[in-house]
């Protein structure tokens, strides 16, 4: 039976971010994958989504500039865009395997489950490790309603050969808002079915209302306080999402986008003494599970941070450092930016404006729409809320604009470096640009 210093279950960004530094530090490593090498993000998650958004963003900017330097109508060619996406995603698994081979990391294919706290089997092979890192990620949460099996998920959407004429998304979080914008830009009639009367609960609700208005201006319809009770196929081959109060939303293709659930099933965690909690695996401050020889990182870990690709990779690098003696006994997270790639984008980092106002702290609300960076291509809306402490140090920011992801990264650096207004103004940026506007926020 093969034995390794460390075993990793899952080859997504978190799993790989643990495996490579451990192998480089002289540890023998085995990594096990049961589906696509590379995991969700590069195969059917954030990366292909961003590829599709390239066409959406180009189309929107061209529309803003109509009769102000540009004329002519642009349409998204969905099959051609899907070919462009596949040119990126199709080679991913082979590239990941090649990288593992180059690093000398042993890789196994199959569904891994624990036999005991040190032993894992794939059904055809069994091997042991001194330490194990669980990085199995998450999957779309399903609805416990009749007809749930009729709902499609994010992987289906990102592999659509043709955009349906009418689509519906159940959910009001990141995925629903992002995919709704893509589908609408591609010419579909779009419905967003929300269980409550808000979207993106984690974000500033003033700015989410602005986002809703922008989405509605693109023809997206929101159905509020819609408690989905069933999904039914109609006589003409379409699908009804049925609410508890009898309302119906009909579409050619309904999608589930109501959150994510950690992949904890069928790992036989009980045999390893690993407990599940909430939406994933229970972890301590050093990301150990209830078994001190087994760690959990990324989307499957019930850690107190947003479930994002960067946080999963950060946790994995921390565990690798902990196992090689270069990290402390308790993980410390920097400010973590979260971004909704909607139309427009909405992102926040650090303390939210709602939390700051409740504490009586200073919040600057800024309409950036007339600023050159946004006015030059007639962007319809650009806003920010910036939180400063009593010393004038930026400790939080929320941004709504087509360039929110870029601006938010500058805020993230400022927060992590605890920059006050003088430090921010001391930096010189290329001008005029999104970055050069940073001096206006302090």
UniProtKB/TrEMBL annotation:
Cofactor: FAD
Binding annotation for FAD: 50, 299
Gene Ontology molecular function: any one: oxidoreductase activity
Listed Gene3D superfamilies: FAD/NAD(P)-binding domain (3.50.50.60)
The record's free-text note on cofactor binding: Binds 1 FAD per subunit.
Binding site for NAD(+): 171-178, 259
Domain of life: Bacteria
Residue ranges constituting the FAD/NAD(P)-binding domain according to the UniProt record: 5-314
Disulfide partners: 41-46
Keywords carried by this UniProt record: FAD, Flavoprotein, NAD, Nucleotide-binding
Residue span(s) of domain Pyridine nucleotide-disulphide oxidoreductase dimerisation: 336-436
Claim: Nucleotide-binding is one of the keywords in the record: yes
Family the UniProt entry places it in: Belongs to the class-I pyridine nucleotide-disulfide oxidoreductase family.
Protein name: Glutathione reductase
Originating species: Weissella cibaria
């Amino acid at each position: 039976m093969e034995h390794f210093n460390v075993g990793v279950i899952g080859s997504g960004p978190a799993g790989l971010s643990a495996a490579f530094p451990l192998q480089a530090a002289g540890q023998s490593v085995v990594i096990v994958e049961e589906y696509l090498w590379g995991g969700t993000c590069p195969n059917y998650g954030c990366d292909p989504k961003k590829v599709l958004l390239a066409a959406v963003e180009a189309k929107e900017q061209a529309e803003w500039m109509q009769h102000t330097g540009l004329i002519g109508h642009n349409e998204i060619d969905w099959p051609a865009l899907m070919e462009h996406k596949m040119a990126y995603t199709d080679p991913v698994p082979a590239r990941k395997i090649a990288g593992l081979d180059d690093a000398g990391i042993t890789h196994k294919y199959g569904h891994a489950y624990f036999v005991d706290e040190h032993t894992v089997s794939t059904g055809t092979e069994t091997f042991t490790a001194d330490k194990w890192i669980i990085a199995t990620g998450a999957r779309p949460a399903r609805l416990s309603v009749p007809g749930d099996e009729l709902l499609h998920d994010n992987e289906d959407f990102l592999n659509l050969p043709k955009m349906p004429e009418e689509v519906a998304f159940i959910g009001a979080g990141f995925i629903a808002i992002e995919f709704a914008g893509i589908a609408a830009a591609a010419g579909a009639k779009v419905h967003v079915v929300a269980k409550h009367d808000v979207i993106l609960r984690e974000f500033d609700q003033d700015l989410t209302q602005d986002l809703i208005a922008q989405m509605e201006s693109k023809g997206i319809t929101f159905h509020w306080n819609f408690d989905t009770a069933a999904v039914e196929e109609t006589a003409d081959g379409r699908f009804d999402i049925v609410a508890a109060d009898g309302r119906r939303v009909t579409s050619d293709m309904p999608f589930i986008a109501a959150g994510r659930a950690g992949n904890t099933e069928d790992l036989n965690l009980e045999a390893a003494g690993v407990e599940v909690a909430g939406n994933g695996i229970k972890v301590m401050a050093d990301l150990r599970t209830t078994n001190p020889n087994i760690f959990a990182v990324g989307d499957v870990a019930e850690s107190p941070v947003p479930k994002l690709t960067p946080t999963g990779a950060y946790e994995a690098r921390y565990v690798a450092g902990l196992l090689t003696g270069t990290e402390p006994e308790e993980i410390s997270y920097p400010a973590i930016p979260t971004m909704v790639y909607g139309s427009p984008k909405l992102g926040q980092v650090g303390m939210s404006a709602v939390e700051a106002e409740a504490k009586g702290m200073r919040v600057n609300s800024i309409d950036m729409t007339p600023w050159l960076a946004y006015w030059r291509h007639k962007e319809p809306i650009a806003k920010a809320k910036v939180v400063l402490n009593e010393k004038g140090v930026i400790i939080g920011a929320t941004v709504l604009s087509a360039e929110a992801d870029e601006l938010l990264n500058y805020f993230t650096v400022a927060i992590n470096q605890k920059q006050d207004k003088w430090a921010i103004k001391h930096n010189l940026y290329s001008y005029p640009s999104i970055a050069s506007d940073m001096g206006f926020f302090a």
